[in-house]
Amino acid sequence: MSEIKTILSPEVPAPAGHYSQAVAYKDLVFVSGQLAPRPDGSHTAAEPFGVQARQALANLLAVLAAAGSGPGDVLKVTAYLVGGGHWPEFNAIYAEVFGEHRPARAVVPVPELHYGYLIEIEAVAIRRGEG
To answer: Which listed residue, 15, 26, 87, 120, has the most CB atoms within 10 A of its CB?
Structure first.
């Protein structure tokens, strides 16, 4: 029997490809890259960067909650941003979401993302409870 558990949040659209929203192993949870679709599956790709960033982070937090984790449990974040110009706005929104907690982080500029989104964000966190 595998100790790897698949995590699925009903608050985030189901994966459209061959992957899980997250997987947990023992006390760690690995969250796949989250784009910014709304919970109903509608896209925010035509919306300004700030709207997309807030939705992508909300999706990340919803998957973490389903895994028994939260923002204060995040160890490492990788954010992929289309171009480097959104970095200051991302940093401000990210700071609002994480508050005083400062996980390790990488911000990677990329030329484009799926569906025309401007942000994708993934994380590794501690899993404190059964989600």
So the answer is: 120
